[in-house]
Specification:
The protein is mostly beta strands and 891 residues long.
């Protein structure tokens, strides 16, 4: 090594001092293009001076690139390399920022041996032509389907064919007109946006193209470099295979030309384990031999760049066990469960810790841990003690490497639900009885419920009840109900009740029923609400020293059958309570019985009838006033909604008073309040009635009305009064109309009475006596008081009998009465002084006509006679004429 350093120093000295500023001249420079990668490729040799052979020295090259489009040098860059003994050509490449097809590029270089700082001469320019110098028969657009990073600047060029020029170009739907006749143009787009899988279209239009379909087109794909992989980690479940996972981040490549590839390799062992593309998140490979440590590198790359992530792992510290399975029960009783499960085998023996999770609806979640070896057979188990009797428990298990090798818990196993066994019920039932007295025997309904210390410890299948007395044997009964009715005589009895499940029976509960008593000392209290609350009923009793406790019983639903019998026990020193129940209803009466107890014996002390305290409504019901007249008003109101009714509505009070004066209306009750306020109150006891009409009011008066709902203890007065004014009586015209009609009418009546004769003669003129022809039979007429016809018309009709007319029920209407001969001898006494007319006869009542019939007859006339008088009404003839019917001639 020292020899080589010495040789190099000597060479530098010889070159610098022996021959002046000696340089190594580059030669044989060749320039080419890789159009796919858009690279300029340079290749050259150095001087074949034998002094430089067989040694390695550092040499610096300065490279310049000239572009004809800009007409200047666009790049000057130094490149340092070592000259080797083989005298092989040197290479260098450069990626162009514009398509190489769009311009001619020239390259030259020089060299310098470091650290002599003596440069060689520049080589001559070596050029590579773009397509713009060709006289091709077609047009071009570059670059072609290029992938660039988002936000980059991209240069395009359009090259027309021979003797043609570019007219315009379009980039992403934006068209630019070209005002030159050049064969080639270049344009640059900056900050290009991220594109979809289809990319951005770029068009060039040349002078020889006439339609859109002829345009030359290229596509620009804009994407991003891949994200750096995150959360790279590895673990094993069996020490055989290693599983590595990561988060690839967002993937921006859309097609096969620029896919994102993930490569997982071991740097220390130069081995690649996985290579995948697109949404790759997982790599699994076998652990090699005894190797437990890995230095892993994950590379994510695409056509624009790459990112890396690293992780160093020890396989022994990355054990993630699979979840346990096949959970089962080996043994169980009422308070213990023996749980088994299985684990998959592990290549190496490990110490494994398992966690058992157990919970029920009535208990908090509990966890039990145990440690086992992972060597086969892997069937660990655990005994879980202290469990509740006849309770469903849900269990699950998870495991992990124990102690220093702990990595993470496995997933939970599937759950299993186990019910512990039953045991005998613990504690006694709370029993009580309801006695219904009878004529010779009494019905005793025994009720029972679980006391605070009672535990069923299983499914209660039946309740056993037995009863017996001293003198004779009793009986037993099995029931699934919580009550049973027994018919007993008046003797004392011992009643026993116990609960049974499949395991055994509970301790018996005993109730001693005394002999039938007359209850002469039982105290009865009247209905009240003293001490009640909005949700409870206050019950009190007078304690005595002979009782060791007290029982209060009642019915939650007193009107239903069964009545939901309830009872509550109290200590010896207690004398009152508030009974609360969600079943209580406002306004409902409840009967409470208070018993004193001596051991298991019951003694009725008193009965109380009470009801839940009813709160007054927050506000009175809204009411409407309608049908207002001069003497009446109708008031109507609506019921309260059930959910807003705070009290049991028993009825309504309607108040009425007059503004600024006392109320004189006679209603149910007159109230006097402070401040000389007087009001009348009308009480409606039917709470379903929602309407009242107030009558006998005065017209044109303003009244104040109010409606109040009342409960047990109503308030003294309603809160809100509404005014209403009755209508005035009818107007003056209607008042004067009756006198205007009545007075003239009375005057007319008086005048008519004063001139009664004139009026009667005017209305009822005298009628002359008619001439009656002889008849065969005597004409008999009924008395005057029986029929008094208004008018009578007789017409001549031969051989027609009056009797026949009567019995046929015919009425003589529109007949003609006439006097053809006007006999002077047939004048009656009353009409002797009157002058008769032979031509006509005046009207005359029928009775006058009958009474004054003559003794002589006038000879009958032959031929037709003139009509003398026409009747205007029907003349009833039935029962008027008797005897032979005279003959009449038709007129």
């Amino acid at each position: 090594m020292n020899h080589l350093v010495f040789q190099t120093v000597v060479l530098y000295a010889v070159l610098y001092f022996g021959q002046g500023n000696h340089v190594i001249q580059p030669r044989n420079l060749k320039v080419s293009m890789n159009l796919t990668l858009q690279q300029l490729l340079l290749e050259w040799y150095v001087s074949d001076d034998p002094k430089t052979n067989h040694c390695e020295i550092d040499i610096v090259f300065t490279i310049q690139i000239y572009r004809t489009e800009e007409n200047n040098i666009i790049l000057t860059e130094n490149y340092t390399t070592a000259l080797n003994k083989s005298n092989q050509p040197l290479n260098w490449s450069w990626i162009s920022d514009i398509p190489l097809q769009c311009a001619t590029h020239g390259v030259r270089l020089r060299s310098m041996v470091a650290p002599l700082e003596a440069w060689s001469n520049w080589t001559s320019w070596e050029a590579v032509d773009g397509l713009d110098v060709l006289n091709d028969s077609k047009g071009y657009i570059f670059p072609y389907e290029k992938y660039v990073e988002e936000g980059s600047s991209v240069t395009f060029c359009c090259i027309a064919k021979k003797n043609e020029h570019v007219t315009n170009y379009t980039f992403h739907k934006h068209t630019e007109i070209v005002n030159t006749t050049q064969q080639r143009i270049m344009f640059t787009e900056t900050a290009v946006p991220l594109t979809s899988e289809m990319g951005l279209s770029v068009y060039c239009r040349f002078s020889y193209q006439s339609s859109f379909s002829d345009l030359d087109r290229t596509v620009l794909f804009v994407t991003r470099q891949p994200d750096e992989p995150r959360l790279l980690d590895c673990e094993t479940k069996d020490m055989v295979e290693l599983k590595c996972t990561w988060d690839p981040g967002e993937i921006y490549s859309y097609n096969d030309n620029c896919l994102t590839e993930f490569i997982l390799s071991d740097v220390s062992h130069t081995k690649t384990y996985c290579s995948c593309t697109k949404q790759c998140r997982l790599c699994q490979f076998k652990i090699s031999g005894e190797q437990t440590k890995y230095n892993l590198t994950l590379v994510s790359k695409n056509c624009l760049g790459q990112k890396q992530a690293y992780v160093d792992i020890d396989v022994a510290n990355r054990v993630l066990l699979p979840p346990p399975d096949q959970l089962s029960v080996g043994y169980q009783n009422a308070t213990m469960i023996q749980l088994y499960w299985t684990l998959k085998p592990i290549m190496k023996t490990l110490l494994v810790v398992c966690q058992v999770n157990i919970f029920s609806l009535d208990e908090e979640e509990k966890q039990y841990n145990m440690t086992v070896l992972s060597s086969p057979p892997l069937h660990p188990h655990i005994n879980l003690h202290g469990l509740q009797v006849y309770t469903n428990y849900t269990l699950k298990v998870r495991c992990a490497a124990a102690n220093d090798l702990f990595w993470k818990w496995s997933k939970w196993s599937q759950t299993i639900t186990i019910q512990t066994n039953e045991s005998a019920p613990a504690g006694q039932l709370d029993i009580w009885g309801d006695i219904s007295p009878g004529f010779k025997e009494r019905n005793v309904t025994v009720f029972w419920k679980a006391s605070p210390g009672f535990q069923a410890n299983g499914n209660i299948k039946t309740y056993e009840i037995c009863w017996e007395n001293v003198e004779q044997s009793g009986g037993c009964h099995s029931t699934k109900s919580n009550n049973y009715t027994i018919s007993l005589n008046s003797q004392s009895y011992k009643i026993t009740v116990w609960a049974k499940n499949s395991a055994s029976a509970s301790p018996p509960s005993v109730l001693h029923l005394s002999a039938a008593e007359d209850n002469g000392d039982v105290k009865y209290s009247e209905e009240n609400t003293t001490g009640n609350t909005a949700h409870g009923i206050y019950v009190s009793w007078k304690p005595t020293s002979k009782f060791d406790g007290y029982v209060v019983d009642w019915c939650n639903y007193p009107r239903s059958q069964p009545c939901d019998f309830q009872w509550r026990r109290f200590g010896q020193n207690e004398s009152s309570t508030i009974i609360t129940s969600g079943a209580f209803s406002r306004g409902m009466r409840y009967t409470f019985r208070v018993y004193g107890t001596q051991g298991n014996r019951m003694c009725l002390l008193e009965k109380k009838t009470k009801y839940l305290k009813e709160l007054e409504p927050v506000q009175d019901p809204s009411f409407n006033i309608s049908a207002v007249t001069s003497s009446s008003v109708t008031v109507s109101w609506e019921s309260y909604p059930e959910d807003s009714q705070l009290g049991f509505i028993r009825g309504y009070n309607v108040y009425i008073k007059m503004a600024n004066r006392n109320c004189t209306l006679k209603l149910s009750e007159t109230l006097l309040f402070p401040g000389d306020l007087v009001a009348c109150k009308h009480t409606i006891k039917d709470r379903n009635e929602k309407k009242l009409t107030l009558r006998n009011l005065e017209p044109g008066i303003t009244y104040l009305l109010a409606v109040q709902a009342y409960s047990v203890n109503p308030r003294n007065m309603a809160d809100k009064f509404e005014p209403v004014t009755t209508q005035l009586e009818r107007n003056w015209f209607h008042r004067l109309l009756p006198p205007l009609i009545t007075v003239p009418l009375m005057i007319i009546i008086c005048v008519c009475f004063w001139k009664s004769d004139c009026v009667r003669n005017y209305l009822f003129p005298e009628v002359p006596h008619p001439h009656v022809s002889p008849v065969k039979k005597t004409l008999v007429v009924i008395e005057d008081h029986e029929v008094t016809p208004d008018r009578l018309v007789v017409m001549k009709k031969p051989d027609i009998s009056i009797d026949s007319l009567l019995f046929e029920g015919r009425a003589i209407e529109n007949a003609t009465y006439f006097n053809p001969s006007c006999c002077q001898s047939l004048q009656d006494q009353e009409g002797a002084s009157r002058k008769l007319s032979c031509a006509s006869t005046s009207y005359r009542p029928l009775q006058d006509f009958v009474k004054s019939r003559p003794t002589t007859s006038c000879p009958p006339e032959t031929g037709q006679s003139n009509l003398n008088y026409v009747s205007q009404i029907k003349v009833p003839l039935l029962g008027v004429l008797q005897g032979a019917s005279p003959s009449f001639r038709e007129p």
